[in-house]
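Limitations

Structures in this collection are predictions, not experimental determinations, and the ligand pose is part of the prediction. Treat each record accordingly. The example that follows, with adenosine-5'-triphosphate as the small molecule, is included so readers can see exactly what is and is not provided: the inputs are given verbatim, and the output is the predicted complex.
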Amino acid sequence: MDITVDGLAKRYGEHLALEPVSIKIGQGEFVTIVGPSGCGKSTLLMMMAGLLAPSEGVVRLDDTPVDGPPQGVSVVFQDYGRSLFPWLTVRRNLAMAAVAQKLPRPVLEARIERVLASVGLAGQGAKHPWQLSGGMQQRVAIARALVAEPRVLLMDEPFAAVDAQTRADLEDLVLRLRDEYGVTIALVTHDIDESVYLADRVLVLAAGPGRLIRDIAVDLPTPRGQLTTKRLPRFADLRAEVFSLVMRPELQEVR
Ligand SMILES: Nc1ncnc2c1ncn2[C@@H]1O[C@H](COP(=O)(O)OP(=O)(O)OP(=O)(O)O)[C@@H](O)[C@H]1O
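Predicted complex:
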């Protein structure tokens, strides 16, 4: 599913949180969104998810305008602790996400088992979220987003609350899932290395007011690897480019 963001802007009362922004994200593309705190990253993502109404402009999925949470789009938030139901098992948490699809029970159960295996949680379905580590809970949140077989996955700092090792594992997991499920992904992050490592394109936003200042094509080879990719000179160049834009946007602005 393509995502077209056309002149999308957001005001909160008098405050202009995001100047009009236009972006196209192609089917199966992985785009990351970076920028300093308060530049409107979450605001942009929530409007793409149909969870927040824009003040101007429109989001289209393929050719259909978004005017509420659309079918085929799943969202993963940072705060997995609050996004899972603690009183339900992992399997029941996942089943809830596909309720609207009214799948026959065996189809739903097969999907749940497949998705749990995909995120490395085979055999954990009968546990409750609180019996799992933070990294495993975030895997459940990702699995839950996949159960409905979305065509678009929108992720808002999904790995911010886990340790570095788990974060690297989850990054690689999401890259693999993009290939396995062919989903289009937009992911908000504060982490510049992560923004380059994961992306086909990095969108850099600046603050005061929030605006898009650069759309960088990441011409690194695939498949990516934590060691192989991050030791490439080209990775260091891209990382430095994003870093300087995020830290000193006024020196770099091109449009
Ligand atoms: N519900 C709201 N009401 C009023 N202002 C808001 C609201 N949500 C966000 N803002 C403001 O809009 C701007 C953009 O916020 P947003 O959360 O989108 O930024 P962000 O880049 O995701 O920030 P962070 O990286 O800190 O999460 C900020 O100035 C914020 O204070």
